[in-house]
Design goal:
binds coenzyme A, Aminopeptidase
Length: about 150
């Protein structure tokens, strides 16, 4: 793994939108929505490329000293190689830089790979919102009491 973590840029938007569609279906962010995130002061994105191809990305919104993780995804053929971990570690670096002290996120109850990832990163499960998603699946709420993920 010889990655460089970059920020969100126009050149990545098309690939990210494709991955969103493939992995999040009806909940996917469109190209325009993603593009509108560029340059927002309270939004912090990490994009990891290999040979010019986006292989992992994620972002969080900063609300005062909290980081709300909005999305994270890794291209299928690159999973279980530490890319999501690398994205979360980069979030920690950004947290230190911008004064974020804790993180929170929501994840589908059935999304066990993501839940395992967040638990491995130090997040605690704090509760469920019933019927949260458009298809009525429950979401699980997680918090990390510190900015250091992994
Ligand atoms: C969830 C996701 C981002 C994980 O990405 P990844 O790059 O494969 O994760 P990593 O390789 O960095 O894994 C780090 C740790 O998380 C846990 N983990 C990740 N995927 C796991 C899985 N499928 N099963 C069990 N544990 C898993 C493990 O503890 C792992 O450490 P290990 O490999 O040393 O055991 C990836 O599966 C994905 O893109 N899924 C589709 C999009 C999605 O659901 N995103 C989350 C929305 S909330």
């Amino acid at each position: 793994m010889s990655y460089i973590a970059d920020i969100l840029k126009e050149e990545y938007i098309g690939q990210i939108a494709e991955l969103e569609k493939e992995y999040f279906g009806g909940d996917a962010w469109s190209e325009n929505l993603i593009r509108a995130e560029i340059g927002q002061e309270n939004k912090h994105y990490t994009v990891i490329c290999e040979d010019g191809k986006v292989v992992a990305y994620g972002g969080f919104a900063q609300v005062l000293d909290e980081g709300h993780i909005m999305n994270i995804a890794v291209r299928k053929e690159y999973r279980r190689q530490g890319y999501a971990k690398a994205v979360l570690k980069d979030f920690s670096e950004k947290a230190k830089k911008y004064g974020v002290k804790r993180f929170t996120l929501e994840v589908r109850e059935s999304n066990l790979p993501a839940r395992k990832l967040y638990e491995a990163a130090g997040f605690e499960f704090v509760g469920i919102r019933k019927g949260y998603y458009s298809d009525k699946e429950n979401c699980c709420i997680y918090w990390s009491s510190q900015e250091v993920l992994f």
